[in-house]
């Protein structure tokens, strides 16, 4: 199959490279000439484990090419994916669909022969209808179908999520389009991934419902963690106790500083807005959004409390800035609210992150960035683990103790067992677990 991928951002690049790896011929198009030049030069603009070799392999076999021109790629394609950004619109939180609609107009101008146009970007219910209307208006005679095929990729695990998905959701309004999409995903039959063919609006909503449910699960366990702290229970054991129930499932029950990233915050907010607009407010999801927002700032208060009630004049070492490990993504990272809260309280911040420092520097210019965890901890009154990078899972606590005048560790990801840290003379504060 010939595939055009409009948008060579995170989703477009990962999906394009994986489709090429399935044996399809893929052209990734992006309006940013610098990005395309970099890709043609073998440089990957994002950090995603395994993506560089996957791109290089498929470029070498001529299955993957890059272009700034929509027209050529679309004219040749059997399937055109729209994988452009849908950020939260400033002011009202609705998804900003201007890039999606601009892509639809560009695609319309170049369609040649029966083409399936697929929205891969996360888009509110009804966007597929609008994409169809835009193309139909521009090209009344064109042979095309508009399909929704949401992605469920996790940053840091995107390639394996793409190649070994739990399911593939295809929202199509006619059989021909659905069978083209089955062919696109044919190589995954080997993995026996279930392909769910639904109506287009159902597929669009399924994506939002999945992310809202996962965000709810995280927020639920975070609130239970707070309760555990008050009543002397252990959230990790509660999570295991409930997670072993198959109806609940063990995943996404890690208590922490609140969810961040490019999807959950934006998608939960967009779903809330869509629901309110439809006169069917999702009160549970509204609560999840509010609780999670408050939680990030609350983590600064937790650190302050661990430091004896004030951080004024104190030096706090922050390990981990990205919203989760194995990414350089700083979007809606809890670290942003935590650092701001601590700075407002008068703290000096030192920080280290294995991949996120370039992004963090742009957002938080007024903190001291360091080259490794030990340099970060030097001179610190307290050490705070904000992101659970593997590099922080086996720290040398003797070395840290020698470098830190203070003896407080706040582990916002429950990476360590409290007693293991206490042994080295530190006071340990985790999330929803007894302090040590
Ligand atoms: C998510 C979805 O998992 C993916 O299917 C969707 O397409 C895009 O959004 P991603 O944002 O990359 O992927 O990361 P994910 O691993 O889901 O984590 C999201 C956030 O939740 C992170 O901030 C993470 O730290 C937090 N989280 C996750 C928890 O706090 N506890 C958990 O148990 C799981």
TrEMBL record:
Pathway: Nucleotide-sugar biosynthesis; UDP-alpha-D-glucuronate biosynthesis; UDP-alpha-D-glucuronate from UDP-alpha-D-glucose: step 1/1. Substrate binds at residues 152-155, 207, 252-256, 260, 324. It holds the Pfam family UDPG_MGDP_dh_N. NAD(+) binds at residues 30, 35, 86, 122, 155, 266, 331. This is UDP-glucose 6-dehydrogenase. It comes from Methylobacterium gossipiicola. The active site is at residue 263. Keywords: NAD, Oxidoreductase. InterPro entries: 6-PGluconate_DH-like_C_sf, NAD(P)-bd_dom_sf, UDP-Glc/GDP-Man, UDP-Glc/GDP-Man_DH_C, UDP-Glc/GDP-Man_DH_C_sf, UDP-Glc/GDP-Man_DH_dimer, UDP-Glc/GDP-Man_DH_N, UDPglc_DH_bac. Residues 317-418 form the UDP-glucose/GDP-mannose dehydrogenase C-terminal domain. Its EC number is 1.1.1.22. GO terms for molecular function: NAD binding; UDP-glucose 6-dehydrogenase activity. The keyword 4Fe-4S does not apply.
């Amino acid at each position: 199959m010939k595939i055009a991928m409009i948008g060579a951002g995170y989703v477009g690049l990962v999906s394009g490279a994986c489709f090429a790896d399935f044996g399809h011929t893929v052209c990734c198009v992006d309006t940013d000439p610098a990005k395309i030049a970099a890709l043609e030069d073998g440089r990957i603009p994002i950090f995603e484990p395994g993506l560089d070799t996957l791109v290089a392999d498929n470029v070498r076999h001529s299955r993957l090419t890059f272009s700034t021109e929509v027209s050529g790629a679309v004219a040749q394609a059997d399937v055109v994916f729209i994988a452009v950004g849908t950020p939260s619109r400033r002011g009202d939180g609705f998804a900003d669909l201007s890039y999606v609609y601009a892509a639809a107009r560009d695609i319309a101008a170049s369609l040649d022969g029966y083409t399936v146009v697929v929205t891969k970007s996360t888009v509110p219910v009804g966007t597929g209808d609008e994409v169809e209307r835009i193309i139909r208006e521009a090209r009344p005679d064109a042979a095309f179908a508009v399909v929704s095929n949401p992605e469920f990729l996790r940053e840091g695990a995107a390639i394996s999520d793409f190649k070994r998905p739990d399911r593939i959701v295809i929202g199509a309004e006619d059989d021909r389009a659905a069978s083209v999409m089955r062919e696109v995903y044919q190589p995954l039959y080997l993995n026996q991934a279930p392909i769910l063919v639904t109506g287009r609006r159902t597929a669009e909503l399924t994506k939002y419902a999945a992310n809202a449910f996962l965000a709810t699960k995280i927020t639920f366990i975070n609130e239970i963690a707070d309760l555990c702290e008050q009543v002397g229970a252990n959230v990790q054991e509660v999570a295991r106790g409930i997670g072993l129930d198959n109806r609940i499932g063990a995943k996404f029950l890690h208590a922490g500083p609140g969810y961040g990233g490019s999807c959950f915050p934006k998608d939960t907010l967009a779903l809330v807005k869509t629901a309110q607009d439809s006169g069917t407010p999702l009160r549970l999801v509204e609560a999840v959004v509010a609780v999670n927002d408050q939680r990030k700032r609350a983590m600064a208060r937790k650190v302050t409390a661990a430091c004896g009630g004030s951080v004024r004049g104190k030096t706090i070492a922050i390990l981990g800035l990205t919203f989760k490990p194995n990414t350089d993504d700083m979007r809606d990272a809890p670290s942003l609210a935590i650092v701001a809260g601590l700075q407002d309280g008068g703290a000096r911040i030192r920080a280290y992150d294995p991949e996120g420092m370039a992004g963090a520097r742009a957002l938080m210019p007024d903190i001291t960035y360091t080259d490794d965890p030990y340099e970060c901890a030097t001179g610190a009154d307290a050490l705070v683990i904000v992101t659970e990078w593997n590099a922080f899972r086996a720290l040398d606590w003797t070395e840290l103790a020698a470098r830190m005048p203070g003896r407080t560790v706040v582990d916002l990801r429950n990476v360590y067992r409290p007693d293991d840290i206490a042994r080295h003379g530190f006071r340990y504060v985790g999330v929803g677990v007894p302090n040590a």
